[in-house]
Amino acid sequence: MNAYEHSVSLEFERCTGCTTCLKHCPTEAIRIHNGRAEINPHRCIDCGVCIRICPHQAKKATCSKLDAVMKYKWKVALPAPALYGQFEGLDDIDYVLQGLLDIGFDDVVEVAQAAELVSAYTRLYLKNESVTKPIISSACPVVLRLISLRYPTLKDHIMQLLPPVEIAAKMAREKTKREHPELSDEDICICFISPCPAKVSYIKNGFGSYQSQVDEVVSVSDVYFSLLNVMKRGKAPAPISRSGMVGISWATSGGEASAIFNDKYLAADGIENVNRVLDQLENGNISSLEFIELNACPGGCVGGVMAMENPFVAKARLQTLRRYLPVSQTYLDKKQQKEYIPEGFFFEEFPTYRPIQRLSENFGESLRMMAQIQALREQLPGIDCGACGAPSCRAFAEDVVRGNASRDGCIVERARQRTEQEEQHDSQ
Amino acid sequence: MTEAVRFHFSVDGDDFSSAGQASVQVKKSLRQLGISPETIRRVSVAMYEGEINMVIHAGGGYADVLVFEDHIEIQLVDQGPGIADIELAMQEGFSTAPDNIRSLGFGAGMGLPNMKRYTDSMEIESKLGEGTKITMRVNL
Asked: Do A367 and B69 touch (CB under 8 A)?
């Protein structure tokens, strides 16, 4: 298996070895080693929590730069709906889309427009008796990776529809080839403007056997400043936008779920809440729901670490923006509603389960190691200080038994031993 | 043969909001042992139902999960009121849960039947006024 390419990484010089990221990483992927954080690529789900939390800005998301994208002959921008929430006082989405053309893109296909199509097909999908309910949204790449690593029994619940950005990419490529048959594949760059580092990883690595149709990803924050310059000019934009309320609402938690148009849904955001919902679903204790929307970021995609604005401010702006928009500008005609979803909207297979937490390939050996871990935990101070470089005493015990850490790494224990020695020395 | 690894949980009967925590914990540990996802699901569902039962009916208790090389044993021990008629309690849909619990979506009378369904064997020992001990086994 090829190594999974991550977009979240460490900026070595900036890291002070403080334990902030260590404590917040939801998959315990981080250890502090020799005074710097290290991310275990097998455990990392690119959720971006460490980027959000690091007080020294030592974690970063790697994606393409706008300049590099501009070298292509024909560039199509796919703005995420979260982009629209970044601008103070914006009252018309067309200013943003016109801005994208003005900074050098040759065409724009809104992800929000594709999202409305995905919503329409989701409503059809839910009518299919053979799908396993509740359906879990396939839109958040962090959630998909989390399920493949930790909740393998839930994989049948995942909706097999491609996420909006992929549908937008297909639409963009078809449109370009139709309107500009003279262009070759190498001339075309389908560029997603993303608030989300996990989307970068997803696009680079594919999903199961599915290969992404997106060529490059740039961050919302990168495009933001370029857009600010051109959007100031005040000329009337061309009427480009094809998004309605549904499409724009996908940027915030609950937006996708509410577009199933019934009340049998749940929407949870923030990685801890996502875990709680998945745990409860795995226990079979969420009944009578049809749809579950899960977003790893607080507030939904507007909370992505490659966005600029505070997610709650962005959400408030989106509420204003969508107020006088039609519910949806993309919907299925009567004939399409009678037919089922076209093949091109599905992904084929879910990535295979990788039991990353497993102690050993051999079950007897795993049992023996687990007994050692338990014994070691009893001896450790249990204050989870993180000074050893592991997020908790339990994780440290695991690292020691796995052979990844030295037993004398616990400084609390060392200090205690020294005090005892000194006391002994004094009493002699 | 290697000695069994034991995971011990105290189930707090006073705090209904924390019910279900032990089954989440045990799931994590079983994953580390490399137990198959389907088996983990069976154990955690059986555990979960048992935990909920202990909180609703018995004011809490203890849950122990013992992992042997060829099977997993789940022991649930409480000092609650005991089960008057085990055969009746095992019937699907039979429940003595109070209304406030039902309003939360529990008390559907599926707890014990689910525990039996998800495990390979289940034994109930119960004495009125003294408590209940349930032992379940899931083969590996």
From this structure: yes
Two tokens at A334? Answer: 């009567």
Q: CA of A358, closest CA in chain B: separation in Å?
A: 4
pLDDT in the model for residue A1:
40
> CB of A78 within 8 A of CB of A189?
no
Mean per-residue pLDDT, A298-321: 95
Domains of chain B: 5-139 (3.30.565.10)
Same domain, A224 and A79: yes
Same domain, A225 and A80: yes
Put simply, whether A408 touches B (Cβ < 8 Å) is no
Query: Which residues on chain A are in Cβ contact (under 8 Å) with B34?
Result: 355, 358-361, 363, 366
- Contact between B131 and B79 under an 8 Å Cβ cutoff? The reply is yes
User: How many Å lie between the alpha carbon of B84 and the closest alpha carbon of chain A?
Assistant: 27
Mean pLDDT of A111-136: 94
Kindly determine whether residue A280 and residue B20, on different chains, have CB atoms separated by under 8 Å.
yes
pLDDT band at A183 (very low <50, low <70, confident <90, very high): very high
Q: What's the CATH code of the domain at A189?
A: 3.40.50
Model's pTM, two decimal places? 0.85
**Are the beta carbons of B31 and A285 separated by less than 8 Å?**
no
Where among A40, A62, A84 does a domain terminate?
Answer: A62
A215 and A76 inside one domain? yes
Q: How confident is the model at residue A289 (pLDDT cuts 50, 70, 90)?
A: very high
Would the CB atoms of A284 and B105 count as touching at under 8 Å?
no
